[in-house]
Amino acid sequence: MTFPTSRHAISRRQLRVGDLQFDVLIAGEGPLVVLLHGFPESSRSWHAQIQALAEAGYTAVAPDLRGYGGSSKPPHIEDYALMKSVGDVAGIADALGSDRFAVVGHDWGGGLAWQTALALPERVAAVFVLSIPFTPRSPTPPDPAFAAIPRETFFYIRYFQEIGRPEHELDRDLKHSLKSLYWAASGDAPLGQWQAPKRGDAGILDDQTPPAGQLTWLSDADVAACAAAFESAGFGPPLNWFRNLERNWQETESFAGRTVGQPAGFMVGEKDVALLMLREAVEVIADNVPDLRVNLTLPGVGHWTQQEAPEAVNAALLGFLEGVSI
Predict the structure, then answer these.
(1) Residue 104's domain is classified under what CATH number?
(2) Model confidence at 207, in pLDDT bands (50, 70, 90)?
(3) Domain residues for 59?
(4) Is 171 a catalytic residue?
(5) pLDDT the model gives residue 254
(6) What is the pTM of this model?
(7) Per residue in 218-232, pLDDT tens?
(8) Catalytic entry in 8, 37, 47, 303
(9) Is 303 a catalytic residue?
(10) Cα angle vertex 184, ends 180, 190, to 5°?
(11) Catalytic residue among 23, 64, 88, 107, which?
């Protein structure tokens, strides 16, 4: 696939990293910027940023992360542990011949970006994250936090720990599922819609009623294209990212007490579910990221930051990168 653009065509390539293959969107020439998408998305979510970065003199590459789109989909839950994806990021940079790079992430890709910065300080020159604030490794594993949530209260991350039921629900109608999730977590929906109270045995799509027309920031044709990226294997592999929380905690023991030392930027939407859930971490992010150069909250924007507000994200990201050396 090649997107028509003004000067720098965005092309789709395949990169080999170890035993895995990664479908990537890539454009431009210059210092490498790696863009990491979240759930449930793909490399397409970075289209506006890839173009802006290429125009500004960077090589921008956005992979479909493992389990997504045209990239490899390993069969086991443990294949989706976060540190394996840190290795994927390094391998993608290697495949493009770059020792140093900046990493940009959103949602799960944001968590991956922070962890990559911690794991590879000699390679990651700068980190810029949307939605998910950096938080130091917790002294306790995640299971007690789940146990504290009443069973009669629906919590999507706990629901995703189940094997089979979530993917069956979401795979039933991919376009409807994606449009429902995109709407519920966007700035278009009523504040708190994503966390609207549900009975404990509900599915994530229960009580989600997206508008009959198009989303204000994503056309129905784009939703259909996003759904096509899930057709080969459905939601199962992406959901496996959520099923490694305990393993991720165990494998990052060496990160305990560490802060992110690279130049960093952070942006979050005013209506982002991540801000509602992680407000305290957002408020103290500068304590844990000493060289935080961008810290912005975007009015009226929901969770899909770079798609809902591409101009604001591009301006902040390019301004940030101008001040760092890759």
Answers:
(1) 3.40.50.1820
(2) confident
(3) 2-322
(4) no
(5) 95
(6) 0.95
(7) 999 999 999 999 999
(8) 303
(9) yes
(10) 140
(11) 107
